[in-house]
Design a protein that fits this description.
- The complex is a heterodimer of chains A (about 270) and B (about 220).
- Chain A has about 270 residues and is mainly α.
- Chain A contains 10 helices and no strands.
- Chain A has one domain: Cytochrome Bc1 Complex, Chain C (Up-down Bundle), CATH 1.20.810.
- Chain A is about 60% helix and about 0% strand.
- Chain A is extended, with a radius of gyration of 27 Å.
- The termini of chain A are close together.
- Chain B is elongated.
- In chain B, strand 5 and strand 6 form a beta hairpin.
- Chain B has 2 domains: about 50 residues; about 140 residues, Rieske [2Fe-2S] iron-sulphur domain (Rieske Iron-sulfur Protein), CATH 2.102.10.
- The chains are: A mainly alpha (about 270), B alpha+beta (about 220).
- At the A-B interface, helix 7 and helix 8 of A face loops of B.
Chain lengths: ~270, ~220
Amino acid sequence: MKLPAPPLPRFLRPAPPRPGTKPGRDGGPNGEPSKPGVKDQAAEAGIQVVGWLDERSGASPFLRAMLYRKIPRGTNWFYTLGTATLFTFISQAVTGVFLAFYYEPDPSRAYTSASHITNDVFLGELVRGMHKWGATVMIILVFLHMGWNFVSGAYKYPRELTWVIGVVLLVLTLMMGLTGYLLPFDQRSFWATVVAVNLNSSGPVIGPYLADFLRAGAEFGPTTISRFYALHMLAIPGLIAALIGAHLYLVIRLGTSAPPWLKAEKKELLKEEI
Amino acid sequence: MANPPKNKPRKSRYTKERGTPGAFEGETVTRRRFMTGGALAVGGVASAAFGLPALGFALGPLFEKTTPTVWQDVGAEDEFNPSTYVPRVISIVPEIGEPGKTTIYVRKFDPTRDNPRNKDQPYVAISNRCAHLGCPVRYIQASEKFICPCHGGIYNFDGKVAGGPPVRPLDRFYTRVRSGRVEVGGRFSLNSQLERFKPRDPSNHLDGLWKYLYPSRPTT
């Protein structure tokens, strides 16, 4: 796919030659252009670095196709919900990594270390709060994102696979909520997780085994909390990150859908979108 | 879809007869195809070599008994009577301290009132784990009922379901008397006829055909 070069903002466009000047007039005696001075080179440094990277990675056609892709007429603020969800995931990942610096996934230390984060660590209350409330915001945004794509019919051909991956991401996000809820290890999180694990056990035949898997045995034991911790910070986020990659690839490849109240005016427009 | 033509000549199974360049006499699989299959097989073996042990490692606790039965002293015989429950705290997972403790309600077995099925147990030691989803139930002496705070499960004096969502009576613990002291052992589950089963999770039915859908596990 070949797209036109992106329109540069006015202040980045090269100034047209003044009327009456000729190329090479201000250069050497034989009409060659003048050598760039230190100042010129410094001004070009950023472009040089980007050019060096681009020449070796070939990123610019990809980035141009991604950042300057066409979007349908009628695109509105609901189309930003996916990006907002992505942002909350990144925020959760960053705050989660830093919380892991202080948190100890051990039944006798978990509650103490969590209250240590809140009460003693510099800005600990803020970072833990961001992770806690960010989790709720992420769930809300996921549902709003899904709701908009449902009511606008964005799941229809050819975007069914994007929807299916999104549903898997929804389940994984809820699993993040479940596994993360145990980690503060206070009365509320302990008993809520007891109920959640027993809910898993209520499934016929495999339910009791699933509950044993989550608890690492028949009872909440010494490794239950480290099991939840490993699922919460390694297994599920890894899967989510990989599936977000696939989700975004499909969004960029297929483009976003027009809102349902807009009719295509010409067939050519549709072709160009694809 | 149209049916494929019936008299289309079948391709020979020998690569030489199919006209594959560089084929040997009597060869049925090209070297390229063999190498592709071999590379895939080696990759599969290599993945299974780390994948299967890792999976077994994660699933291991499903197949080993993690809670050995320990008999715990809960008091002298004269501390308990047949008409009311006395709360006691026992440790079901000693390794983790406070979170591994649980409350049980103990009374003496009453031959005039209790189901004779369990008359080999000198004491009735009822677990406070609700058979709905595992919240802690509380015994209310005034109504002789166990009440669950989470979803409104109610149990009679002998632990049978009186109302609410629970699917079976409250679990009990084995009891015995050693030199005048009451001791409490492993947990067991009961169905609505107070027949004994190996311990199940809350929410697992034990009546009728339901019990085949909720098997006991190696861990219990």
